[in-house]
């Protein structure tokens, strides 16, 4: 019951063996796709096989790269709910606006999906030491899954990474280091340690399997929408695995003949103008993004000034008829509060960027009123106390309560 055929460089197409440890393509230093024997899959895996399987990402096992299920490292990666947000929709005059709430996953972000697969595969390949540079949530997720697997973990993060991310890595036993630089500097440290310390590099897209975990977002939402994909998907983009993984999922589902219509969603890559390399490259019509100078945003997951999978993101956005755009950093706190106050969903600052993009997408004709629009809440607002300003009134018990002020 294992259908991986090979790994394939996303840029030059070079093939690699999937049963040995691989990072980037040796020839062009770009990411590798995991390829499946789709014909074999079609014979052995049908939608009907899903009935009765537990509601976790592992229900799509045949479309995942783990060979032996005893290697699965899991904290129960639950299927995340899709919630309709009618009040926000009405404010924009939209008919169908939904949020897929990834904050329910272990460690409070969708990074759990990628790390569940990356660490399971690392275990299967006999790896015992893993390392990652992180803007925040990837470190927390890797630390948790490495702990679950009994692996040694090393995490490198910019020193101004949200405090919760620093602490969750430490709590999960990862050797955690603060770096006075950006995630790209952290990536360089992991690259060097890989050679001298024998770590396996679990950086975004520098190993082939995190993307397979992110792919489950696409498989899952397709099943939730009864195999008729939404018209538009808004995704906050940092390294891009989420968007790339979903697009890969739609391609595989189409090849398997599982989709009821060949119409795929417009993929909208959303960034803050504090760090917008992909939006900038999209606007210029370029396939590769230039490093973004002085990257700064409270949406820490989007603080990726240079992404190795830049062309994969841009290719997917363009193939889908979507756009990549940046919205003002200053609008993030307002949207976090507005969505949570209107709908009770505590969205992360990254997702606030997507809400902030809605009006422009409507004005530009990218989104139509009748479209089914899905926004990803990639993480829990509770992980970002720094991004939430709450100057609350106080009640002083040494004085009579001023009931007039309580309204
Ligand atoms: C990492 C992260 C992102 C960006 O996701 P990519 O798939 O790397 O583009 C968005 N939101 C949150 C909360 C994240 O942790």
Task: Show unreliable segments.
Answer: none
The CATH class label of the domain at 82-108 and 210-385 is Alpha Beta
How many β-strand stretches? Answer: 13
- Structural class computed from helices and strand pairing: alpha/beta
Instruction: Give average pLDDT, whole number.
Output: 96
| Separation, N- and C-terminal Cα atoms | 62 Å
Shape assignment? globular
H/E series, N to C?
EEEHEHEHEHEHEHEHEHEHHEHHE
Helix content: 25-40%
Fraction in beta strands: 15-25%
Task: Name the CATH architecture of the domain at 82-108 and 210-385.
Answer: 3-Layer(aba) Sandwich
What is the alpha-carbon Rg in Å? 21 Å
- Write the CATH fold name of the domain at 82-108 and 210-385: Rossmann fold
Widest sheet: strand order?
A: 4-5-13-10-11-12
Account of the 3D structure:
The protein has helices at about 40-45, 85-90, 110-125, 135-150, 165-170, 185-195, 210-225, 240-255, 275-285, 310-320, 330-345, 350-365; strands at about 5-10, 15, 30-35, 80-85, 95-100, 130-135, 150-160, 175-180, 200, 230-235, 265-270, 325, 370-375. α7 crosses α8. About 35% of the residues lie in helices and about 15% in strands. The protein has a domain at about 80-110 and about 210-385: Rossmann fold, CATH 3.40.50. The termini are far apart. It is globular, with a radius of gyration of 21 Å. The protein contains twelve helices and 13 strands. The longest helix has 16 residues, at about 240-255. The protein is of the alpha/beta class. Strands 4-5-13-10-11-12 form a six-stranded mixed sheet, with helices on both faces. Bound molecules: pyridoxal-5'-phosphate. Pyridoxal-5'-phosphate binds near residues 236, 239 and 241.
């Amino acid at each position: 019951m294992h259908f991986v055929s090979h790994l394939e460089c996303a840029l030059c197409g070079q093939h690699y063996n999937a049963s040995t440890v691989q990072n980037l393509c040796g020839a062009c230093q770009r990411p590798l796709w995991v390829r499946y024997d789709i014909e074999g899959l079609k014979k052995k895996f049908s939608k009907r096989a899903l009935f009765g399987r537990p509601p976790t990402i592992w229900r799509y096992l045949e479309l995942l790269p783990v060979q032996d299920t005893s290697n699965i490292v899991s904290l129960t990666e639950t299927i995340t709910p899709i919630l309709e947000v009618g009040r926000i929709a009405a404010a924009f005059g939209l008919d169908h606006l939904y949020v897929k709430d990834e904050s329910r996953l272990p460690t409070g972000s969708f990074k759990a999906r990628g790390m569940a697969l990356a660490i399971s595969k690392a275990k299967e390949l006999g790896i015992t030491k893993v390392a990652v540079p992180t803007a925040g949530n990837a470190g927390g997720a890797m630390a948790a899954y490495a702990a679950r697997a009994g692996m040694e973990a090393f995490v490198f993060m910019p020193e101004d990474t949200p405090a919760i991310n620093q602490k969750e890595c430490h709590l999960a036993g990862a050797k955690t280091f603060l770096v006075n630089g950006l995630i790209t500097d952290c990536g360089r440290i992991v690259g060097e340690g890989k050679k001298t310390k024998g770590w396996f590099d679990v950086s975004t897209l520098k190993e082939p399997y995190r993307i397979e975990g992110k792919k489950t977002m696409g498989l899952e939402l397709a099943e939730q929408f009864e195999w008729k994909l939404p018209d538009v998907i808004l995704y906050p983009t940092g390294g891009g695995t989420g968007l790339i993984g979903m697009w890969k999922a739609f391609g595989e589902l189409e090849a398997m003949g599982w989709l009821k219509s060949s119409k795929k969603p417009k993929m909208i890559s959303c960034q803050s103008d504090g760090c917008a390399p992909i939006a900038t490259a999209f606007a210029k019509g370029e396939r590769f993004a230039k490093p973004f100078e002085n990257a700064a945003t409270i949406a820490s997951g989007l603080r990726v000034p240079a992404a190795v999978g830049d062309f994969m993101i841009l290719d997917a956005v363009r193939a889908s008829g979507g756009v990549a755009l940046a919205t003002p950093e200053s609008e993030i706190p307002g949207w976090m509060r507005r969505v949570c106050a209107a709908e009770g969903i505590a969205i992360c600052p990254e997702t606030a960027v997507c809400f902030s993009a809605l009006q422009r997408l409507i004005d530009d004709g990218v989104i139509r009123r009748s479209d089914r629009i899905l926004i990803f809440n990639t993480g829990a607002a509770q992980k970002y106390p720094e991004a939430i300003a709450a100057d609350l009134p106080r009640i002083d018990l040494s004085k009579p309560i001023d009931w007039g002020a309580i309204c």
